[in-house]
Amino acid sequence: MNASKSKTTKTAKTGLGAAARELSHVDSSGNFRMVDVANKPISARTALASGCIRMKMDTFKAIRDNTLAKGDVLPVARLSGIQAAKRTAELIPLCHPLPLSSIDVRVNLDETLPGVRVEGFVKTIAQTGVEMEALTAVSVALLAVYDMAKAVDRTMVISEIVLREKRGGTKGDFAIDP
Hints:
Helix content: 25-40%
CATH topology of the largest domain: Alpha-Beta Plaits
Low-confidence stretches: 1-14, 16-21
Distance between the termini: 55 Å
Shape: elongated
């Protein structure tokens, strides 16, 4: 490698060409960037996401009866989700760090799966939305369930992580049926 190549700064490119101009996280040269939200109005914004983890009935019963060696799964998963929502901008490189007004993570057993369902609801008053924070809360809460129960069941399946509702902002409201 010659000296001039080692000093060259590499820039990540999308390889999308003309299509890159339509993507908000890509500049006119095809480089990834954080979206400029400086001119967007500050408004109340909320997002609701959900997901689930399916498991063997014996695993479900162990969580329900609090007999797993790692301890009480549901409150740990809830706190993991809350912490994850607060750290979303550290995990997703192009997310804006946001002042979160409220984070509510609900972790409930569902015998019909059998497994656990998680909902994450996040609020802010800011220039951009909290969809990624809600999705991150749900994802990490489900990962915490997996981590705490994997010693007894490695066949668990995390699925159905979805944004169910978004309110506020310039693009308006969005909702889907659960």
